[in-house]
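Risk register update: the risk of archive-format incompatibility is retired. Evidence:
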Amino acid sequence: MIPARFQDLIDRLVAPRLQRFFLVGTLAASVQQVLLWAFVDVVNLEYRIGAAIAIEITIVLSYLLNNAWTFRASQHTTRATYLVGLVKTNLVRGTSIPIQLGILTVFVEWLGVFYLVANGGAIFISGLYRYALDSRWTWNWLRRYLFRRARWHLHRDLIREFWYQVPWSVLPGPVAERRLLLRMRPQHNSQMSLDTYHDAASELDPAPGETATAELVVADDVLVKLFALGSGAALDPHEHDDSTNIFHVLEGEVTVVRDGEEAHIAAPGVIRHDRGVSHGARNETDETVLFTASLCPLR
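Archived output:
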C-alpha cells in the first residue's frame, strides 16, 4: 500500500500531464480524422490503409507536441536524445497501430459503425495504452521524478519510525552504551540531521538546460557545493587560483572538462582539479546529474 503522502504526490504529478496528454491527443485525433477522410473520400484509399497512414503522421505530430509541452520536465533537447525519443515513440505507438486498426475493423465490419466514428472510438481506447507506455518509457518522467523525490525521505522516515518504536532506555547493557544510543536517536524538530546531502538533493530538480545548486558545507577552510545539472546543462569552465577543487559524482554521468580535455565520469567518481587549472562540466544525458564540488582550502 502506498503511503498517503506519496499517493498525493503521484496524484499531483500525474493529473497535469494526463490533462496535457489528453489535449495533445485530442488535437492529434482531430488531425487524424481529417487525414482519414481525405485519404478515403478524396484519394479513394481503403479505410484501413488510409487509417494506417494517418496514424503514422499523427504519431510524429504527437511526439513533437508532447516533447515540447506534456513531458517538458523530461524534454529531449539534444539531437541524439530527440531522435532516440522519436524512435521510442514510434515503437510504442507502432505497436498500438494493430490495436487501433483491429478495433476500427470490428466497429466497421461487425457493428456497422461509420468509419470516422469508429476511428474516433479506436483512438480513445488505444490512447490509454499509448499514454501508459509513453510516460513510463519514452520520457521516463514518472520513474525519475518520484524516485529522486521520494527515496531519501522514505528511507529517512522509515528509520526514524524504527528508532521511535524501540524502548532504548530499558534495554539491557552498559549504561554508557544506552546513553550513546539515546544521543544518536533522532529528535523531531530538535536535532539537526548529521547528513546534509539527502535533503538538499531531494529539493533540487532542474529543468533541462538548467543548473540548480545547494551549499552543503560552508566553513573557514572548506566549501562543499552540490550541483544538479539538468539534461543539456553545463557548468562553464573556470579556475581557482588558491584552492584545489574536488568533484564527487554522486548520481548519473557527467562530462568533465579540464584544460581542454574531456572525460565521461559515471557515479561514483572522484575528479581532482589542481589550483589554477581550468575545469567545468556538462550533462549530455537524459538524466539529472548530481555532483559536489569541494574547495580546499576556501580562500
